[in-house]
Amino acid sequence: MAARVRYDQRVLALIEVRGGSRDWAEAESVFEAHGWPVVGHEPRGQGASAGILSADAAARVYRVEIRLYGAARRAERGATWQVRNAARAAQLEMYVRRADRLDRDSEMLTEWLAYSTAHRAGRLARVARRLARMGVFDAGTQVTGGPGEAFRLARAGLDGGSPRAVAVRPMDGRWKRPARMRRERQFDRRMAVFSIGTLVLVSSAAISAGQNGGSRYFWVAVALVAGCGALSAGGTVDLGRRWLNTAMAAGIIAMALLFTLGEEGGLTETGGVRLLYGLTLLTGLWLLVRQWTWGEWATWAVPLTATLLISSLVGAGSVLHALYADSLQLTPGDLDVPPMWQFLSALRLVTLLMPVLLVPAVWGIAKHYHYVVPGERVGGLMYVTILAAFLVAGGSLAMDSAEEAASLTEKAARQGHEAPHYYGVEPAWTCVEPTVPLASLPGEGPRFDPARPYLAFGVAGGDAVLWDRRAGEPLKVPAGKVRLVPAKSAQVRCGR
């Protein structure tokens, strides 16, 4: 028995299979393996294809229900691609002669709860009715349908017994205007378009406020398109009261713009970019991940995730500090960085790498709307592409971050200012007082002068790691033969 297949859309396809009985049996096995029920079949030129396709004893036409993920729009295209991929994998000659999307949307029927009516007699009937509306006398029965249907269903004795003494109370107000209610998936789609359109409008408006020239016109156009889409979806959320719905949608959009784009505490250009990026990322990755099968998880998702976690959370911290040290003519061993700061620097690198995730996110959106052809080779190709992108982007961002921090440190040292910190590396001006005769003090780097302060990076490997502002290069002296005393600034005179 085939495993249950999760899906969003159903497409009835007319599939021609050529090759004879052995290939027909193999095709039926393929349909069953994919969870596609066979509605019927007949030789080509008979049944549904009679008078349309010429007769061929070596070909058979199947009516198969293709079940797939994705949007309703272009679902027939997605189903055709699915069949082609299955035929290619099984080395079968299959042709999708016709594909019709099946629209099976559910009505949004009102839900009712049954409650006992044994309490109605007496002078406290009004109080009893109010308690009934609060659920005090609920009988443990729920029914759906119109008011009359719900009442009759609740009272009916399903086991053949006498009618029950119950009434019903609605759980929502849909029963008052059932003719105007859209079907469930139609309603959900319009609400999704309204919500996403409003968020895109707000973020695009915030971005356009900080732009000039052509880029500003572009973001204004994006905001207008998103606003029109949100307004249209909100106005048609049901089949009646279109003007009232449109006015309510416009009011919600106006309030969103007012609260998010206000002068004080409003959404900035950077905030708009982050909102739009986050919306795209979350939507695209969710649409992508929800379509994964266990095979795709095992093929590339799990190795990719493991690779990124290991490389980012274990080695990223040391990589960033190694690049920082190299820019200052030091070695990674010259910086004694606590593990916590290495972990935080790894998280920072992960956040810098986040834009690369737009690649699978956009691919997930395109796959959901059936704009890309799925194939078995796509998983491996995506793995290599995304991993290469992560490595290139990660190396570039890490180098830029480390080089910029090292450059600011050198500049601060030359000017005698306070040097910036870099993920646990805290350079500070320090007076270095020898505890042995100066002539017997070994060192590595420029000539040591105890009268002036040095920029100290701390102690690592038994050496005090210093930076000589005059020579513009590092200096190392044995930590056991000097005393490190914090200096107020680079201009103080040491040894006094």
Give an overview in words.
The chain has 496 residues and is α+β, with helices and mostly antiparallel strands. The protein has 5 domains: 9-102, Alpha-Beta Plaits (2-Layer Sandwich); 110-170, no CATH class; 183-267, no CATH class; 297-402, no CATH class; 428-486. Helix content is 47%, strand content 18%. It is built from 13 helices and 12 strands. The chain has helices spanning 21-33, 75-90, 125-133, 147-155, 184-209, 214-235, 242-260, 269-289, 294-314, 316-327, 339-353, 358-368, 376-415, and strands at 9-18, 38-44, 56-68, 93-102, 111-116, 138-144, 166-170, 428-434, 454-460, 463-468, 473-478, 482-486. The strands form 3 sheets. The protein has a 5-stranded antiparallel beta sheet, with no helix packed on it. The N and C termini lie far apart (90 Å). The chain crosses the membrane at residues 191-211, 217-236, 243-261, 273-289, 301-325, 345-366, 378-399. This is NnrS multi-domain protein. It comes from Streptomyces liangshanensis.
